[in-house]
Design a protein that fits this description.
By secondary structure, the protein is α/β, with parallel strands linked by helices. It has one domain: 2,3-Dihydroxybiphenyl 1,2-Dioxygenase, domain 1 (Roll), CATH 3.10.180.10. Helices cover 16% and strands 37% of the residues. The protein is built from 2 helices and 8 strands, in the order βαββββαβββ. It has helices spanning 14-24, 69-76; strands at residues 8-11, 28-33, 36-41, 44-50, 61-65, 89-90, 95-101, 107-113. Strands 1-4-3-2 form a 4-stranded mixed β-sheet, with helices on one face. A 4-stranded mixed β-sheet has the order 5-8-7-6, covered by helices on one side. A hairpin with a 2-residue loop joins strand 3 (36-41) and strand 4 (44-50). The chain is globular. The model has no long low-confidence stretch (mean pLDDT 96).
């Protein structure tokens, strides 16, 4: 029944967030409705809503299921985007994953299912 979900994260500055997601993460920017931002890359979307409370993005994040996680890691690692505790590794729950912090402080985990289970 359910097919996809769209994470909605917090943005502290629309212009800086647009630049970060397009220039660093390779997302396509679609719209800005009074600071509410919409981006996509491949089959996923990420939305961000405006806030001036810096504690919110420091306490939120999302998990993005991907294929070819090693290739994505190789794209982001030279840009200095990898979270200090989020280097690419295989987790006991059957995911190979890494983490980044966006320009606002939201954590985004990118993971590939390597368990063989769907």
């Amino acid at each position: 029944m359910l097919q996809t979900a769209v994470p909605i994260l917090a943005s502290l500055n629309a212009e800086e967030t647009i630049n970060f997601y397009t220039e660093k993460l390779g997302f396509t920017f679609h719209s800005n409705w009074d600071g509410y931002l919409i981006f996509s890359r491949d089959q996923i979307q990420i939305h961000l809503w405006p806030t001036s409370d810096e504690t919110i993005p420091k306490n939120t994040g999302c998990y993005v299921n991907v294929t070819e996680v090693s290739q994505l890691y190789a794209e982001y690692e030279p840009l200095g985007l990898i979270h200090p505790n989020g280097k690419l590794e295989t987790k006991p729950w059957g995911m190979r994953q890494f983490s980044i912090l966006d320009n606002n402080g939201n954590i985004i985990h990118f993971g590939e299912n390597i368990s063989g289970e769907k």
